[in-house]
Write a structure and sequence with these properties.
By secondary structure, the protein is of the alpha/beta class. The chain has helices at 10-22, 34-43, 64-70, 85-93, 106-117, 142-147, 152-163, 167-174, 178-192, 197-206, and strands at residues 2-6, 26-31, 48-52, 54-55, 58-59, 75-80, 98-101, 122-123. The strands form 2 sheets. Strands 2-1-3-6-7-8 form a 6-stranded parallel sheet, sandwiched between helices.
């Protein structure tokens, strides 16, 4: 098993590498920045990439397509400081093979890695129960939980998809290059688990995330929208 560790927290990454090496797992590289991770994946043969979920203010889920392009045969395992069902749903939609908690005992992390290496998909047992809104609100469905991981820019892109904007129109409306717009679109599709722009737009409207009449993003907890798909007479 050849492992690559990429974690924003330097001390944690180095400690984990030392631990795994002591247990006779081969750590081929340790990095602390996503860009350095991509370089290492192109340079080394890696079976499993053990990856932090958050790098500063950036969530890595939107950049997983870059990781796969750099090393298609590498399994991705996420380690998070905080685990919740929304993160797990987003990770599954992105094709992640394992999700663990940084506070898990060493034996559990080793077991997770061994099972992923053997071909399983593994989620830490500490994740249980449906994700919900604050008290008084109905539970979020899977699409709404995934939408939590959209950045403000990606929400603007999803609004454009609902309007039917093509790449060039999206780029003009957001003041960005077409290539950047395409990258944002791919991030939206990945995070929502959608296979096409049409599917992402349909999901956003069907589950009341975006109003098809105004194109406005609608906030969770507003019965007008989060419950739209479940109101009497709704399609």
């Amino acid at each position: 098993m050849r492992l690559l560790i990429c974690d924003y927290q330097v001390v944690f990454a180095q400690s984990l590498a030392h631990l795994l090496t002591a247990y006779r797992r081969e750590v081929v590289a340790v990095t602390h920045r996503f860009d350095h991770l991509l370089d290492a994946l192109r340079r080394e043969v890696v079976d499993i990439c053990l990856l932090d979920v958050v790098f500063g203010r950036e969530n890595v889920l939107g950049r997983l397509p870059e990781l796969r392009a750099a090393s298609p045969g590498t399994h991705i395992v996420l380690l998070a400081s905080e685990l919740d069902p929304a993160l797990v749903a987003a990770a599954r939609a992105a094709g992640v093979r394992g999700v663990g908690h940084k506070r898990q005992p060493a034996a559990e992390i080793l077991d997770l890695l061994d099972r992923v290496y053997a071909g399983e998909r593994v989620v830490a047992e500490s994740v249980a129960g449906p994700a919900t809104l604050s008290a008084g609100h109905r539970p979020l469905n899977d699409a709404q939980r995934l939408a939590v991981f959209l950045t403000p820019r990606e929400r603007e892109v999803l609004k454009g998809l609902v309007r039917g904007d093509d790449t060039h129109k999206l780029a003009r409306s957001l003041g960005i290059a077409p290539a950047t717009a395409r990258c944002h679109v791919q991030n939206v599709l990945t995070k929502l688990g959608a296979h096409s722009r049409l599917e992402a737009a349909t999901t956003a409207v069907r589950f009341g995330m975006i109003s098809p009449e105004t194109g406005d993003w609608l906030k969770p907890g507003d019965d007008q929208i989060w419950g739209a798909a479940h109101r009497p007479g709704a399609a």
